[in-house]
# Entry
Amino acid sequence: MDEEMKKRIGEFRFGVIHDLIGGRRLSRGEKRRLIREKSGCEWEIPYSGRSSISPSTILNWVRRYEKSGYRLQSLYPDEREDKGRFRALDEDSIGALIGLKKQLPDAPVPVILREAKHRKILPMDVKVSLATMYRLYKRYGLMESEAPKEDMRRFEAPHPNDIWQSDCMHGCAVEVEGRHLKSYLFAIIDDHSRFVVNAGFYIRENIVSFKDCLITALQKRGLPRKLYVDNGPEFRSIQLGHAMASLGIALIHARPYRPQGKGKIERWFHTVRTSFMACLPEVVDFDELNRRFEKWLPTYNTGIHSSIGQPPLDRYLAQIHLIRQAPSDLLDFFRVRVTRRVDKDRTVSVNGMVYEAPIGLVGKTVALLYNEQTPRTIEVMYNNMSFGMLVPLDPHINCRIRRRQSITEIVVPGDSTTTPVKKTSLRSGKLFGGNHHDNL
# Structure
């Protein structure tokens, strides 16, 4: 299992336990109720055929997370050699059980298990749990799930920054450098107060635009406990999920084609269309659009909201002491992560540029982290340890450096072996002697 798969699973586990941890104190009865509800849900577990989680597993994740000092890495899975296989069943038994289910499509799983032992499809001494049977039939599409009636209720977060809702609205036509393009309004609203923590128009409906809007909101308004977003591709990326989990924010995606859960921000978009966009010309300059919007937004945040009977800003500020501040290194949580193998000449290539890495990393696969806003400032990591920033390659300087070579051992921290490399003594100056390649 590679690092990215472990991250996805760690983020999923954090999403399951996020309301059982943190600063909010839960009574014993409330904690048991939450665990019972979670264990009764059907989950889409990454890289697994299972769909349920036992109470003991949830408690184990909570203990591991708290014992590690609230580190996301504590929720990463341990490697298992038999992952994806049914340990209690061989291939012949699996085939026979599938055939029996097709013969008795309406029979419940306990009846099928009892019938399998009666027909000696399974030996009497073989212990197969009902959970294994359910997973087996679910994997092969033999379980007909009855969709329960949906329990739809009006809800409101009890405190500011408990839940943020975010979505994207198609805006008006804009002019950018002489071209007519479509605009998109990304917005984030606080569920408790209806206060719009940040919003702005962009010319692309993608994850880059959303991250820009989100980072600004986090810098200005602190960290929410949950971020409830749409299910579209502009709100989905492994990088975003890992950043939210590392910041202690549960990233929740709405069900496809179910806008009811995002009612507050959908209602605000209606206000934008009727109160702001209705007064715009057919085509407006892009920068002018955002300037007008920045002037209009405070009129919403400071006006009386019909649902809460007070201005959203006043309700948001009433409990401002509860808000978690964003860390000073917030941008580092959103860095792009790529992997590269360091060549023998100590170089790696990123975004069309060539950089020099530390000599101890020659031949090793390293992780490179950088912000999209500053793509040439790249940190190099190996075994989760930083080796500083990469230096752009300057072959002309390297041509003037004289090297005296001797063999030594360089120990890379976190590596189980030492790597014999050439110890290089650098001295600037002219090259001496006949063939200058002999001195390099």
Notes: The chain is about 30% helix and 20% strand.
